[in-house]
Amino acid sequence: MSEDLANEIEAIQSIYGNDVLREADCGFVYILSTPNKEASLRLLFPPDYPESIPQLLGTERTGAQARKGYGSHVLDIARATLLSVFIPGSVCLFDLLQELDTALVEESNGQHFPPANPEDDASPVLNAAPSVSGLGKEPCWILSSAVTEKKSTFVARACSVTSPAQAKACVAHLLDSDKRAAKASHHITAYRIRALSTAESMSEVTYQDYDDDGENAAGARVLHLLQVMNVWDVLVVVSRWYGGVKLGPDRFSIINNVAREAVVEGGWTKSRAIQ
């Protein structure tokens, strides 16, 4: 068991009690009880957790009064919740339990249960996250690796954009559809866009802007990075989850490093110029 996992289990059990997470008979598999105590799930931690996401293997049990198929329903909600809160390099059990509790309460109040299918209870496949309606097309984000320094975690995302309005819409979509991202302390954004002024004209118009989102001077530095890299038609969003310890100037280096990684990984440094 890694030190991160051991510390996380100790913290979770101090909050929710020892029964919330207990070891199963085989290594790295744990039994996770839902906050409402109506079901428990089998949870597999990969050896490199928290770099890799845990897997919800299936339902361990459901309460005696639970309706038929309830375990399958809870498992689906838990899998979608796990996908929404997990970020590589950061432990996720507390966020998973909090968000799962909220989701189960909302489901219970609204009674939005799907048709029962008990055979799904033992499904070993981690389902994809449900699509988010009403927010427009989901941006195709390229993510950097997560960097954690003194309990603060940084992750950069980059996507292609062709207008300032689209850049703003992409940020709005991220914050509305990704609960884990929405909880970040700061979202530093910057974009550079180059386009034709009109369909008939061959003249060029450029757009460049940034937003610190409370991380003073960080947005301008990310924009400067994009200028130095000479990349266009890209939006970069660097999310920071503040860990309670000030990093001083070191934070700017981390912000630029994860931003650069996302831009390079997405291929914007190769050939994005208008022909």
Give a written overview of the molecule.
The chain is an alpha+beta fold and 275 residues long. It is 35% helix and 23% strand. It contains 7 helices and 10 strands. Helix 2 packs across helix 3 (93-110) and helix 6 packs across helix 7 (250-266). The N and C termini lie far apart (54 Å). Residues 111-134 and 271-275 have low confidence and may be disordered.
- Please write the string of helix (H) and strand (E) elements: HEEEEHHEEEHHEEHEH
In terms of quaternary structure, the protein is single chain
Number of strands: 10
Shape: elongated
How many strands, which pairing sense, and closed or not: the largest β-sheet? 6 strands, antiparallel
Q: What is the mean predicted local confidence, pLDDT? A: 81
Rg from C-alpha positions? 21 Å
Structural class: alpha+beta
In helices, the fraction of residues equals 25-40%
Kindly, what is the distance between the CA atoms of the first and last residues, rounded to a whole number of angstroms?
Answer: 54 Å
User: Count of helices?
Assistant: 7
Measured by DSSP, the beta-strand proportion falls in 15-25%
> Regions with pLDDT < 50 over 5+ consecutive residues?
111-134, 271-275
